[in-house]
Amino acid sequence: MAKAFDFPGGIHPPARKTRSTRHPIATAALPKRVVLPLGQHIGQPAEPCVAVGDRVATGTLIARAQGLISADVHASISGEIIAIESRRVPHPGGLSETCIVIEGDGIRDDWERLPALDWRHTDDATLHARLTASGVVGLGGAGFPTQVKARVRERHAIDTLVINAAECEPYISADDMTLREHAADVLEGARLMAHLSGAERIIIGIEDDKPDAAAALKAAIKAGNRDSLEITLKAFPARYPSGGEKQLIKRLLNREVPSRGLPADVGVLCHNPGTLRAALQAVRDGRPMVSRIVTLTGEALARPGNVEARLGTPMTELLDAAGLDEASLARLVMGGPMMGMELAHLDLPLVKSSNCLIAASTIELPAPPVEQPCIRCGACEEACPASLLPQQLYWFAKSQEHDKAELFNLFDCIECGACSFVCPSHIPLVDYYRAAKSDIRARAFEAQKAEHAKHRFEFRQARLAREAAEKDARRQARTQASRRPKAESAKAASKEPPTTSQTSSAASSPSANDADLKSLRIAHAAAKAAVRKAEKVLTRVSQSGGGQGQAQNADEIQDLEVQLATARENLAAIEARMAAAKEAAAEATSDSSMDTDRERAE
Amino acid sequence: MIEWINDHGMLAAIFALAGLSVAFGALLGYAGERFRVEGDPLVERIDALLPQTQCGQCGYPGCKPYAEAISGGDAINKCPPGGDATIAALADLLGREASPLDGEAQDAPRVAYIREDECIGCTKCIQACPVDAILGAAKHMHTVIADECTGCDLCLDPCPVDCIDMIARDDAIDAWQPPLPAGPGHRPAAQLIVSDRAHTPREATHG
């Protein structure tokens, strides 16, 4: 059972961290060539703003963020752009993506920095703009753009900033080493982000297997507390996955993030230490994000450790520098062994979200055993840190019963892998959940797209109807205008039969015209109501916009605008038809009076 | 009154039931008028299942007309862009037998692409596009708004110089989906990186 200030479930995998923490962080050799993918973050890929042949310095902006959730990409070495083309990137499916390739100058490393800022004496807008212009994203692995997270106070009241130093996944020690060597920078970065988000206190959550980092933090807290901001350090026994945002918040604050919600919903913002340091460097030193600290470990490496490497550096160079023994390399994993992805190639670039590279031998990470049938033992349920029912989710995901899986809160699964880890049948449970989640998302996206296409089709139909009605009205006005003098001449002749060129509506009896007019008036009122309703919905949605749902919101607004335009077109069409009918009615009455005149004359 | 009821139990029961049926009949009739739904709600539900490419391959000018036709009794297997998934969904909704697709199934989602230096600016494709996804003016080059294109092919035939191609959508990295594991008896496709059985003696699973 879960105690207060603890999360349920969890596992104790072998940590294997000490191997990479023996030496201080080294600086990797400057690569001769870097490959920078345009989508190193969650959200839209950036758009290149340089051309092949351009000269760039380290820190030059080479691709601009697109849309609301996106991040800039900067040159990580000085040199010449030699290609903008599709290259293989670290991706679980081994896919390619557009990348910018820079050929370096060799040993020269010219920098292009932004002006340095003192964040305590700078307004928020400038700081937001600086974070945006520096391309800082979350370095914990997910790669969420930091500037979007910094703006969270526009939508949520934040009281606590949590520094997520738990680093619970085996092997990874990048945060541990960052804290040991740069604790003061991390704290200063935390103060900056707390200032931007309006948080009143900072809590550092750290597992007790990192005593050196905890000591460094304690010293830094003592040394540098100039503000009134309350900073507390909380160490707790190591247990995977205490570094999950939701689990950490539960453990530190005993607050539970609501289902499908965000930490901001309970007034908390979580940041990775590396991200805080990068944010501080972006503001204080004007240094865009061009490098990151990455753990290189695994039994196939002779000199494991942490290195600060430029983004886009080929992984082969990093691994070779760490003494890779290719013969004993069985699997290359990016990220941790629980949640990371296995890479099929060595020639991939280091990206913003690569926190760890594990060059594992067959002995430490053997090939997965054959999957056996589920024996319904319930071990997964005991291990699940999100209190879900992994076994139920497994059945539903397997039989693709997506609605039931959603009912059992599939989307609250954090994909930590604890259930797969304990499963005695070696069922890759998380793989099932990932497949189901992505299928549900893809279907929802398709449905949304179909809905949008439908609205555009309706808009086009309405526009064509309006154009036809207007054309009709104009033609009728013309015939009537030309008929008037003719009618008068006919009246003068008086013996001639009535002209045969009458339009059908003018020829119909006045009572039919009245009925027509009445139904048109009803349709007119309905169309007006539809326009008003569409306007109301659009204003409501556009006012509730902002925050992390912005990208989706923009799509919705665009769709609603199409619907509003459709309603307006419908209204215009009915107005044109009504005007035509009114004129016809007026004409018909005068016609009928004319006819009676004529009859009388006869 | 009470006495009369006591005396003529049978008649009283008949009157009571007749009175109730008249009253509820009137209520139902009124409600039917008051809350009448314009249009056919079934058509809306069918339309929601169709892929909205508006391609006309079913023989109707758009998805809505086909939805109306289905509701009027037409076959449910005339939608190539929707494929078997749509047929299954329609069969489920309407309680009909799912039949194999009438026509060729479409593989990957496609998008129209105008070879712009060959375009003569005739605006014929613009008029043919059911979702206004082609941009251009008379005697000026046209282009396709790829995000709005439904890949319906309707712009291909009107083009007098055949400068429109249907190409595969270039969103491989967004459209990628992790595969569903093969099931018991198979080795997982390398996604499961560690499990506690493989190498170390079992440790406590609880803290």
Structure description:
The complex is a heterodimer of chains A (602) and B (207). Chain A is an alpha/beta fold. Chain A has 15 helices and 17 strands. In chain A, strands 1-14-13-17-15-16 form a six-stranded mixed beta sheet, with helices on both faces. A four-stranded antiparallel beta sheet of chain A has the order 2-8-7-4, with no helix packed on it. A four-stranded parallel beta sheet of chain A has the order 11-10-9-12, with helices on both faces. The model of chain A is unreliable at 495-508 (pLDDT under 50). With 207 residues, chain B is mostly helical. Chain B folds into three domains: 2-34; 41-94, Electron transport complex subunit B, putative Fe-S cluster (3-methyladenine DNA Glycosylase II, Chain A, domain 3); 108-170, Alpha-Beta Plaits. Chain B is 34% helix and 7% strand. Chain B contains seven helices and four strands. In chain B, helix 3 (41-49) packs across helix 4 (63-71). Chain B is elongated.
Largest sheet of chain A: 6 strands, mixed
Low-confidence region ranges of chain B? 198-207
CATH architectural group of the largest domain in chain B: 2-Layer Sandwich
* Derived structural class of chain B: mainly alpha
Instruction: Write down the secondary-structure element order of chain B.
Output: HHHHHEHEEEH
Report the total helices of chain A.
Answer: 15
List the strand order in the largest sheet of chain A.
1-14-13-17-15-16
How does the overall form of chain A come out from the CA principal axes? Answer: elongated
How large is the radius of gyration of chain A? 34 Å
Separation of termini of chain A?
A: 105 Å
Average pLDDT of chain A, rounded to a whole number, is 86
**The CATH superfamily title of the domain at 114-287 in chain A:** NADH-ubiquinone oxidoreductase 51kDa subunit
Strand tally of chain B is 4
Spatial gap, N to C terminus of chain B: 80 Å
**Oligomeric state of shown chains:** heterodimer
Which protein chains make the most extensive interface, counting residues with beta carbons within 8 Å of the other chain's beta carbons?
A-B, 70 and 48 residues
CATH topology-level name of the largest domain in chain B: Alpha-Beta Plaits
CATH class of the domain at 114-287 in chain A: Alpha Beta
Query: Which term fits the overall shape of chain B?
Result: elongated
Enumerate how many helices of chain B there are, as a single number.
7
